[in-house]
């Protein structure tokens, strides 16, 4: 067994020799395990003009549709708004090709209920409430009435089915949805406690209907892979985030990694800007490169810079 020498960033050497290594510290944006509160908010920089578009959506109680190339801070904006306005934990709905509005509203575990009900009966115990088998999804949880609105991120909606925007439209217009499994219940079970998307959180549902009292702060992101119908676009406030210029990139690096990280990054910035010009390169790729250099990684080593600052468009 050999131990890597101090200051040696090469943890894996490919020499087949088994060794004990201490993993180096993770970049701030890749730290897990600690709740967001303990970790502190990740910094977010936005121009006054763009912040005003966010404000317009907030005033109008309309969803904000955020577009722009990869890594321009679309998803991070939702986290920043939820944090700054103290809207609680951000509700996230990561959209994929199988996503549908129904599942995002709530899911009913009929099989689980059948199993547990039979089990309780066999053991002579009280049957569990139907509410413990109904879990509201991120969209459903966002519509639960409360003293202040919740923040909901509908992330990468262009990855979803063509019908998704229209299906969502109805929910966003009405601010209400029904849970038929609860509507059917007898009068004495008019009030049911169901689970929410907040881990062990619960919400009280009356007569199987969830009706928001304040429209949630909804931020929808899209990478522009799909056009949305006019009826949907009409009801959203649009924010198109541009790729950050050199000055903004420096500010973002300093915000994430401290002012001292700006020393000796001129060459990295130049390379980043040169490579970004013809294709697509995300801001977090620059953050990765600066972080690696700060950890003593030799970015001039063959192929290493290419591995971090690789083009995002085209075939891989
Ligand atoms: N304006 C910004 N201010 C601070 N950090 C940013 C900004 N834009 C991007 N970043 C950083 O770049 C990374 C990618 O941002 P993200 O929000 O995931 O981009 P997108 O959703 O547009 O692809 C995040 O780690 C984020 O911290
Ligand atoms: Mg994103």
UniProtKB/TrEMBL annotation:
Protein name: AAA family ATPase
Recorded GO MF terms: ATP binding; ATP hydrolysis activity
Chain ranges of the AAA+ ATPase domain: 60-247
Family annotation (Pfam families): AAA_5
Organism: Streptomyces arboris
InterPro entries hit by this protein: AAA+_ATPase, ATPase_dyneun-rel_AAA, P-loop_NTPase
Transmembrane residue ranges: none
């Amino acid at each position: 067994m050999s131990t890597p020498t101090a200051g040696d960033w090469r943890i894996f050497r490919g020499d087949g020799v088994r060794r004990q290594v201490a993993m180096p510290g993770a970049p701030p944006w890749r730290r897990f395990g600690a709740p967001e509160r303990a970790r502190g908010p990740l910094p977010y920089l936005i121009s006054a003009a763009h912040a005003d578009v966010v404000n317009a959506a907030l005033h109008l109680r309309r969803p904000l549709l955020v577009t722009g190339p990869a890594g321009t801070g679309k998803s991070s904006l939702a986290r920043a708004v939820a944090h700054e306005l103290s809207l609680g934990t951000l509700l996230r709905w990561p959209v994929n090709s199988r996503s549908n509005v129904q599942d995002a509203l709530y899911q009913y575990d009929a099989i689980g209920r059948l199993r547990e009900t039979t089990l309780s009966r066999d053991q002579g115990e009280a049957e569990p409430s139907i509410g413990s088998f109904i879990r509201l999804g991120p969209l459903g949880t966002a519509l639960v009435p409360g003293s202040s609105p919740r923040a909901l991120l509908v992330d990468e909606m262009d990855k979803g089915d063509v019908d998704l925007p229209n299906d969502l439209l109805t929910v966003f217009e009405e601010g209400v949805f029904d849970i038929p499994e609860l509507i059917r219940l007898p009068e004495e079970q008019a009030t049911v406690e169901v689970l929410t998307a907040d881990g062990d959180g619960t919400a009280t549902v009356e007569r199987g209907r969830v009706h928001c009292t304040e429209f949630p702060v909804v931020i929808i992101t899209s990478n522009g892979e799909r056009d949305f119908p006019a009826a949907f676009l009409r009801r959203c406030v649009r924010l198109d985030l541009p790729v950050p210029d050199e000055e903004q990139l420096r500010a973002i690096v300093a915000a994430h990694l401290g002012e001292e990280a700006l020393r000796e990054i001129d060459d990295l910035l130049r390379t980043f800007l040169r490579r970004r010009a013809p294709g697509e390169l995300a801001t977090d790729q620059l953050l990765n490169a600066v972080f690696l250099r700060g950890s003593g990684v030799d970015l001039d080593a063959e192929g290493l810079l290419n591995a971090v600052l690789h083009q995002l468009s085209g075939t891989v």
